[in-house]
Amino acid sequence: MDVALFITCLTDTFEPGVGVAVVRVLRHFGCRVHFPSAQTCCGQAHYNNGYHAAAAALGRRMVDIFEPYPYVVTPSGSCAAMVRLHTPGLLADDPCYAARAQALADKTWEFGQFLLNVLHADPKALPRGADGPVTYHYSCHLRHLQTPEEGVRLVSELPGIDFRPLERIDQCCGFGGAFHVLYPDISDAMTGDKLDCIARTGARTVVCNEAGCGMTLGGAARRRGLNVTFRHVAELWAERLGTLDVTPHPPREVCA
Q1: Domain residue spans in the chain?
Q2: CA pair distance 8, 77, nearest whole angstrom
Q3: Cα angle 177-153-161, degrees, rounded to a multiple of 5
Q4: Helical axes 233-241 vs 16-28, angle rounded to 10°
Q5: 184: which residues sit within 8 A by CB, 6+ positions away?
Q6: Which helix (DSSP H) or strand (DSSP E) does residue 48 occupy?
Q7: Chain-wide mean pLDDT for the chain?
Q8: Can you say whether residue 8 is alpha, beta or left, with left for phi > 0 and alpha for psi between -120 and 50 degrees?
Q9: Neighbouring residues of 46: CB distance < 8 A, sequence distance ≥ 6
Q10: What pLDDT does residue 164 have?
Q11: How far apart are CA 76 and CA 42, in angstroms?
Q12: DSSP label at 63?
């Protein structure tokens, strides 16, 4: 199975180890992973801020670059949602790209989705690990791609894991793309509420499959003195499979 990795801007810049873990897990399950080096942004930031012409131009570039591959996998739910839900609409009136954009949407998968729905990987079949208490943060952008239960399953069904369910799992972390810049007071309050829920679980690891959420929550947790580490599910799976020695990193911040 040939798979192209769409690494995304935030993952490439701030969480490159997640990309490595994604590649190692996909290879473990028999995928030939390709990395088109010409890839850039999917246009999500432009689209969210109303620059639809610029987003459409980046959408065309995405189509051109990833068209040769039968599957496209990304570690980011928000970028997967952009390609699957919005790029076809942006290019719907372009006779050269409309059908091709829809074809790209149909073959683009968020990493966890791809594990469960295409590779049919079974979390219960993985080796046991020593993760300590773990909880799971459900990103807003995953809402149109997978249910919270699907994301939780990738973690809670790992053998021997001490999984702690998160109260109000579908509540936003407060990042919301440009939302935290435009409405900082509301954003900070939402982040604080989310950290309160995380603290009540007693978890020491938060599985967060969205770099923007992880940066927002991780930076706020550090400033609060909350002793939690944020990791992508690919890192947990790679560690369990013995394909990668993943060392948890200190939380990144969106802004100082």
Answers
A1: 2-118, 123-241
A2: 10
A3: 105
A4: 50
A5: none
A6: helix 44-48
A7: 90
A8: left
A9: 52, 54, 55, 58
A10: 96
A11: 11
A12: H
pLDDT at residue number 246: 47
pLDDT at 149 over 80: yes
Q: List the one residue out of 17, 5, 4, 18 whose CA is nearest residue 209.
A: 18
Taking 3-state DSSP, the helix, strand and coil percentages for the chain, each rounded to the nearest 5, stand at 50, 10, 40
Q: Give the C-alpha separation, 231 to 31, whole Å.
A: 23
Give me the pLDDT at residue 131, please. Answer: 82
d(CA 186, CA 112): 30
Q: Which residues contact 34 (CB under 8 A, 6 or more apart)?
A: 2, 3, 4, 5, 69
Which element (helix H / strand E) includes 65?
A: helix 52-66
CATH, domain range 123-241 = 3.40.50
Model's pTM, two decimal places? 0.89
Residue 144 binned pLDDT confidence (cut-offs 50, 70, 90): confident
- Burial of residue 148 (number of CB atoms within 10 Å: 0-12, 13-18, 19+): middle
Residue 53 scores a pLDDT above 70: yes
Distance CA 75, CA 185 (A): 29
Side chain identity at residue 226, one-letter code: L
The lowest-confidence range among 149-158, 163-172, 237-246 is 237-246
Q: What are phi and psi of 164, to 5 degrees?
A: -115, 110
